[in-house]
Write a structure and sequence with these properties.
globular; two-stranded antiparallel sheet; 8 helices; mainly alpha
């Protein structure tokens, strides 16, 4: 999957995706899983799907078998736009909505999220509320030789990846995780989701 750097939200889907046998995967220049550009001018009501890989439709055999695609077939008089992002957490989708989607005049927002907010700290050990691989990418860009080398090792070493995953999963099953980390995961998710709802309400978006 082609993933590009994107200011403020960190990443977005690239328009040039590898062709996979039996899978239709169209990404426009805006990073949406949508056939063609989405312009601010519209001729029918417009609803965006936001969230992470579930919203984006990882595993779907075609664009029209994602959640957005299935509902589009059911309601052809409404434009549904799949704006899910790669591994997005709730904070990223809030920023994505504010910067990239509001200028396109949405009439409604469908949120499909929560999995990454929980899974990233559990499976990868990243801090709650931080995007996937945040510490690794910040190390690569730090300008500090040791942090850069360590981040490169974390990305490229399969042995380090396996050891880290085992250590992290063991910690996730411990009482310390439930006491120290889980409340932070839930708190940041609730806060970010509330900001998304508040932003929608302030603009009259359902």
């Amino acid at each position: 999957m082609s993933i590009l750097a994107e200011p403020y939200v960190m990443t977005k889907l690239g328009s040039k995706q590898p062709r996979l046998e039996g899978i239709t995967f169209n990404i426009n220049e805006q990073g949406f899983r949508h056939n063609g550009p989405v312009l601010s001018e519209k001729t029918r009501p417009r609803i965006f799907f936001i969230g992470g890989s579930v919203a984006m439709g990882v595993g779907a055999s075609a664009d029209d078998t994602t959640y957005a695609g299935c509902i589009q077939r059911r309601f052809p008089d409404i434009e549904f736009v799949n704006a899910g992002g790669p591994s997005y957490i709730a904070k990223q989708q809030w920023i994505h909505l504010a910067l990239n989607l509001l200028p396109l005049k949405p009439d409604g927002i469908v949120i499909l999220d929560g999995f990454n907010d929980m899974a990233i700290p559990v499976a990868y050990g990243d801090r709650p509320g931080y995007p996937y691989l945040w510490d690794t990418y910040s190390g690569l860009l730090s300008g500090n030789l040791f942090r850069t080398l360590w981040a490169h090792l974390r990305m490229k070493s399969n042995i380090n990846r396996v050891i880290s995953r085992i250590r992290t999963c063991n910690y996730a099953n411990s009482p310390a995780f439930e006491k120290d980390v889980l409340p932070k995961v839930l708190d940041q998710y609730v806060r970010a989701t509330a900001m998304t709802y508040d932003l929608c309400r302030s603009r009259g978006i359902r």
